[in-house]
């Protein structure tokens, strides 16, 4: 999708863009207005107290960061290498068409189905035949699965690099690593960051695998359970009677800020690098 | 009717999986719902690929499909 592309749609583009923008702004404004009061140093750095109704959400914040980091480690090498392969090396045959179809599908599958997969494959199976209190690693793999849509983005970016040779053959990356990869890098980075942003915000994939509502201590190995912001928010807004609203909105705001920061970072990377190149 | 609450397949899995006995019929049904969701996704994507054309114009612009 190039920047010069003009829309065939008969409406002025910017007005439609504003329509898309309004709900996002409303959500942000509403959450900031309702949640900003709960946020202070203690809220961000303390353990919860008194059945979550007092104290902070530090373990949940930390858990989300750990999960996001684990997702990055598991999924980045696979997705980036797959993207480079598909964009630069793969022939157009039944196998690669199936792979592309599978990637598109993985992006569209409801995230709860990834949760089921993680439960079956990593928690209950022989792979991780451990007690249900030790499920963190399943969470990472699970997230990596839920994160597949990013591969699609990566692939698209890599393929968006214009070929300078009139008839580009295969083995381009191997032959010209200094041409193809630097040009694809902003797209790859954007895809990676957006994927991690989604991973940070997902509730369903960690629901049956890694997430715990309350742990008195922080996780100490990849096999430990951890608290995580999306699941924490889900539980405190639906399962805990008498939960102060300010804490619910404060938690939502923190989660929103984490994902929003990642998204803005992705946009920033893209615009900065685009501005720097000459085509 | 438009203002009545509904129960979705995804919500059913999420709400009930924590409560079922492992290996029971109920448990298997929840996985079955997951399978149906997967099939729906697959069919919709397959239709979309047919419409857009897996080997069609989008491919040359660098899109995935």
Q: How does the SSE layout of this entry go?
A:
The complex is a heterodimer of chains A (279) and B (65).
Chain A: H1 13-35, H2 41-45, E1 48-49, E2 54-55, H3 58-89, H4 94-108, H5 111-123, H6 136-146, H7 149-159, H8 172-175, H9 177-201, H10 204-207, H11 229-238, H12 245-276
Antiparallel strand pairs in A: 1-2
Helix pairs in contact in A: 1-12, 3-6, 3-7, 3-9, 4-7, 5-6, 7-9, 9-12, 11-12
Chain B: H1 9-16, H2 25-52, H3 57-60
Helix pairs in contact in B: 1-2
Walkthrough of the structure:
The complex is a heterodimer of chains A (279) and B (65). Chain A has 279 residues and is mainly alpha-helical. Chain A has twelve helices and two strands. Chain A has helices at residues 13-35, 41-45, 58-89, 94-108, 111-123, 136-146, 149-159, 172-175, 177-201, 204-207, 229-238, 245-276; strands at residues 48-49, 54-55. The longest helix of chain A has 32 residues, at 58-89. The two termini of chain A are 14 Å apart. Chain B is mainly α and 65 residues long. Chain B contains three helices and no strands. Chain B is flat and about 45 Å long. Classes of the chains: A mainly alpha (279), B mainly alpha (65). Chain A binds chain B through residues 1-2, 92, 97, 100-101, 103-105, 108-110, 112-113, 115-117, 119-120, 124, 152, 155-157, 159-160, 204, 207-208, and chain B through 9-10, 13-14, 17-18, 22, 30-31, 34, 37-38, 41-42, 44-46, 49, 54-55, 61-65.
Descriptive keywords:
heterodimer; A: 279 residues; mainly alpha; two-stranded antiparallel sheet; 2 strands; globular; B: 65 residues; 0% strand; flat; disordered C terminus
């Amino acid at each position: 999708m190039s920047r010069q592309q003009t829309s065939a749609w008969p409406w002025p583009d910017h007005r439609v863009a504003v329509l898309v923008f309004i709900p996002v702004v409303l959500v942000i404004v509403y959450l900031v207005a309702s949640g900003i009061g709960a946020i202070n140093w203690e809220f961000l750095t303390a353990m919860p107290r008194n059945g979550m109704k007092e104290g902070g959400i530090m373990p949940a914040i930390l858990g989300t960061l750990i999960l996001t980091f684990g997702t990055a480690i598991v999924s980045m090498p696979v997705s980036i290498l797959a993207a480079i392969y598909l964009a630069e090396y793969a022939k157009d045959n039944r196998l690669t068409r199936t792979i592309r179809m599978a990637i598109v599908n993985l992006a569209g599958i409801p995230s709860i189905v990834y949760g089921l997969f993680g439960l079956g494959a990593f928690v209950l199976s022989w792979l991780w035949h451990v007690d249900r209190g030790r499920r963190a690693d399943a969470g990472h793999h699970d997230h990596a699965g839920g994160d597949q849509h990013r591969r699609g983005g990566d692939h698209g970016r890599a393929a968006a690099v214009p070929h300078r040779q009139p008839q580009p053959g295969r083995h381009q990356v191997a032959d010209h690593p200094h041409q193809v990869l630097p040009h694809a890098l902003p797209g790859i980075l954007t895809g990676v960051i957006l994927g991690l942003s989604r991973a940070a915000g997902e509730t369903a994939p960690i629901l049956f695998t890694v997430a715990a509502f309350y742990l008195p201590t922080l996780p100490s190995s990849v096999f430990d359970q951890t608290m995580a912001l999306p699941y924490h928010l889900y539980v405190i807004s639906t399962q805990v009677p008498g939960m102060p609203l300010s804490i619910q909105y404060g938690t939502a705001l923190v989660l929103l800020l984490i994902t929003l920061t990642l998204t803005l970072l992705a946009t920033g990377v893209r615009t900065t690098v685009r501005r720097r190149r000459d085509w | 009717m438009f203002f009545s609450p509904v129960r979705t397949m995804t919500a059913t899995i999420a709400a009930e999986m924590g409560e079922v006995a492992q290996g029971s019929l109920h448990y298997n049904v929840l996985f079955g719902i997951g399978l149906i969701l997967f099939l729906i996704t697959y069919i919709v994507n397959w239709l979309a690929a047919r419409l857009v054309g897996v080997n069609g114009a989008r491919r040359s612009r660098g899109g995935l499909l």
